[in-house]
Write a structure and sequence with these properties.
By secondary structure, this protein is α/β, with parallel strands linked by helices. 32% of the residues lie in helices and 15% in strands. The strands form 4 sheets. The protein has a 5-stranded parallel beta sheet, sandwiched between helices. The chain is globular and about 65 Å long. Pathway: Amino-acid biosynthesis; L-glutamate biosynthesis via GLT pathway; L-glutamate from 2-oxoglutarate and L-glutamine (NADP(+) route): step 1/1.
């Protein structure tokens, strides 16, 4: 193990963020470059090497956390990187974006602050890239089998890389103009600079994966035609049907889904626009939805120069610490979080429900009317006398997603069956009701975390490999029915 007394001798330290007044003026990642390495060995030493490492259960990838913590403590970065990559194709993504259910399940977290697992992870992979230790893994032989992966988010990329390394010829189809899915256009630059995606794509190209951008299966190429071209197809198309807000005034100009707003800001960073066609500059911004996507909208609005930013959440404000009765260790608790975007300003209003929008004579939204809500007999109910309005010249809806896209015809063209939640149904091998067609990620699971998406891609790849060859040595960290550890 690492230092047997590490957790006794050292407290938890996390990556330092740049000053707010500095970082809101640019789109670079919020953390101070290089601030982790001086402390990361000490932080890794806090890992207890417990007899039953519950962090493995918290992480759907089954990351070998105590092992790479030990290597990081000893500053054996090569061995740490090898252990990290043994279970995770893209640790630089999860190390920056995952909410770390592994830390919620850390045994040390029973009565102390848990190990900074995410920070150790990202330090290892950044050190590996810096040292040139992340090389293409080119297959020794080709199988002669072809696979199409539709979608280039984390699940699609993980499936594609696993299948390419197994010797199959893989082509990834992406309807956007660049590879990366929501990693590219849904995650703001200040949370993850896109250079991290770009170098993984180059690694995958060197391994033999092919990429086709600007092609939407179902519209540009029929799904049935694609199925005839390839020996197998993996659907990693996500759950992109956004939940809407059907209240009076929804039709007013200036009200957008989060995934209409955020991609344009990212396209500015890619050089496609000088300024975003949907900008918060000088406007009173309201973000409806209290999750991570809502926080991304908040941080984006700050950087665009919003006059004010207000985030609404219909649920009550969560506790700041785990409730040992309702959310016992090692479950993943719902806690009050202050993200980097929230540190930068704005107001957060909980237990609030939008009743309607009010516009000006030109049809532009100007006000949002809301009311406080409370639970009555288990249902959220408006509180009489709490109605009020707040200024709203730009509104973003960040209320989650309800299922995979049905508009492009892909589901119908393949004749896919859906489950009760509107997700694409699959069997234990991640195969749909159509032989040779598999599904991975949010399209089959529903809206979930990046770490689950990568685990899905790896597991679906095993199902595809077994379908094509009769057997597979590829790992399958999860089953389609597995869910996060929760109450």
């Amino acid at each position: 193990m690492a230092d047997p007394k590490g957790f006794l001798n050292h407290g938890r330290e996390v990556a330092r963020t740049r000053p707010v007044e500095e970082r809101v003026k640019d789109w670079n990642e919020v953390y101070v470059p290089g601030s982790l390495l001086p402390i990361i060995s000490q932080q890794a030493s806090r890992c207890m090497d417990c007899g039953i490492p519950f962090c493995h259960n918290g992480c759907p990838l089954g990351n070998l956390i105590p092992e790479w913590n030990d290597y990081a403590y000893r500053e054996d970065w090569t061995a740490a990187s090898e252990r990290l990559h043994a279970t995770n194709n893209f640790p630089e993504f999860t190390g920056r974006l995952c909410p770390a259910p592994c830390e919620s399940a850390c045994v040390l977290g029973i009565n102390q602050q848990p190990v900074t697992i995410k920070n150790v992870e990202v330090s290892i992979i950044d050190k590996a890239w810096e040292a040139g230790g992340v090389a293409p893994q080119i297959p020794e032989r080709l199988s002669g089998k072809t696979v199409a992966v539709i979608g280039s988010g984390p699940s699609g990329l993980a499936a594609a890389q696993q299948l390419t390394r197994a010797g199959h010829t893989v082509a990834v189809y992406e309807r956007a103009d660049r590879i990366g899915g929501l990693l590219r256009y849904g995650i703001p630059e200040f949370k993850m600079e896109k250079r991290h995606i770009n170098r993984r794509i180059e690694q995958m190209r060197a391994e033999g994966t092919r990429f086709r951008t600007g092609v939407e299966i179902g519209r540009d190429i029929s799904a049935s035609d694609l199925r005839k071209r390839y020996d197998a197809v993996v659907l990693a198309v996500g759950a992109t049907t956004a939940r809407d807000l059907p209240v009076p005034g929804r039709e007013l100009k200036g009200i957008y889904q989060a995934m209409e707003y955020l991609p344009l800001a990212n396209k500015v960073q890619e050089g496609d626009y000088v300024t975003s066609p949907i900008s918060a500059e000088g406007k009173h911004v309201v973000v409806i939805g209290g999750g991570d996507t809502g926080a991304d909208c908040v941080g984006t609005a700050h950087r665009q120069g919003a006059a004010s930013v207000t985030q609404l959440e219909i649920m009550p404000r969560p506790n700041e610490e785990r409730n040992p009765v309702s959310q016992p260790w090692p479950t993943f608790p719902i806690l009050y979080k202050v993200t980097s975007a929230h540190e930068e300003g704005g107001e957060r209003i909980y237990s609030a429900s939008t009743t309607h929008f009010e516009g000006d004579e030109d049809g532009n939204v100007q006000w949002l009317h809301l009311t406080e809500v409370e639970f009555v007999d288990g249902k959220l109910t408006p509180k009489p006398g709490t109605e009020r309005k707040i200024p709203a010249q730009l509104v973003t809806l960040a209320m989650g997603f309800t299922g995979t896209d049905r508009d492009n015809g892909l589901v119908e063209q393949l004749g896919l069956e859906l489950d009760a939640r509107g997700n694409i149904a699959r069997d234990a091998d991640f195969q749909t009701n159509v032989p040779g067609v598999f599904v991975a990620g949010d399209a089959g699971r529903g809206q979930s975390l990046i770490v689950w998406a990568i685990a899905e891609g790896r597991s679906a790849a095993r199902g595809v490999d077994r379908y094509l060859t009769g057997a597979s040595d590829l790992p399958a960290p999860i089953r389609p029915t597995d869910r996060a550890l929760a109450v």
